[in-house]
């Protein structure tokens, strides 16, 4: 497979179309990004690397980070985790609060914001130094010790995150949150503000495409079955109320973030990360989604 040729074609085809969508501006600091950035990086299981565009530039990974924190919480609690957060697609936007009340403070899945906030609560309860552990885990997956978060983005999220505070408070009122609201939000915003390049994200996600992460990453490990479940959740819930479309058109397990990134996995073949800041109405990168659709069409590499 000539992946380099295919990535070059994708960059050309996507670049020739109008750069539609909107940059996320509900987090003011994120709105400062250059909307014309585009990068893609693909790493195969045999550690061959292919890239195009701004694939070496750091960007805000936002909700892609939810996969990392979920992997840690799953490693710590095993099946007990699913008593506090579901595994069903929500059919609602990532920041919707409606289901949470009538489903008794149990979020539909770990990738909507409420679910990711429960995952943070687990990490705060289970770990002595959750922040150090999160960064150690991501650095170990990536094979780089240059992973950090953007303090301005974290602060900007904190200043505008009324809805996230509402999720935590609602869940605390319903008995599904142990730690204090502010502690949970501070950790969550640091996690969302992590900055990585497409290359780093693809390197990290490659482990989710491996035959189980039975070896340890900074003390965290998942069995083969747990990695499959993580991928199942990415496929069914990784793109919020556009997860069906992503499975339909792309056919990979993946996760998006409002920074415009998407990381995806073709188990036992490759991991790919793409970045383009403009988002569609569902909060997913327009060019990112389109690029991955082209990738799986050109390579005929859908998991189905
Ligand atoms: N930090 C963002 C938020 O909490 C993450 C949302 C996303 O990437 N979908 O709203």
Q: How is this structure best described in words?
A:
There is one protein chain. With 304 residues, the protein is of the alpha+beta class. The chain has one domain: Beta-lactamase (3-Layer(aba) Sandwich), CATH 3.40.710.10. It is 45% helix and 15% strand. The chain is built from 12 helices and 12 strands. A 5-stranded antiparallel β-sheet has the order 3-2-11-10-9, sandwiched between helices. The radius of gyration is 18 Å and the shape is globular. The model has no long low-confidence stretch (mean pLDDT 95).
Summarize the structure.
The chain is an alpha+beta fold.
Features:
304 residues, alpha+beta, Beta-lactamase, five-stranded antiparallel beta sheet, three-stranded antiparallel beta sheet, globular, binds glutamine
Q: Hetero groups bound?
A: glutamine
Major sheet summary line: 5 strands, antiparallel
CATH class, named: Alpha Beta
Strand tally is: 12
Instruction: Summarize model confidence as the mean pLDDT.
Output: 95
Q: Which radius of gyration do the C-alpha atoms yield?
A: 18 Å
How would the blueprint of this fold be written?
Blueprint: H1 3-16, E1 22-23, E2 39-44, E3 49-53, E4 59-60, H2 65-77, H3 98-102, H4 113-126, H5 130-142, E5 148-149, H6 151-160, H7 162-173, H8 181-192, E6 194-196, H9 198-206, E7 213-217, E8 220-222, H10 224-237, H11 243-249, E9 253-256, E10 261-266, E11 270-275, E12 278-279, H12 286-299
Antiparallel strand pairs: 1-12, 2-3, 2-11, 4-6, 5-6, 7-8, 9-10, 10-11
Helix pairs in contact: 1-12, 2-4, 2-10, 4-7, 4-8, 5-9, 6-8, 7-8, 10-11
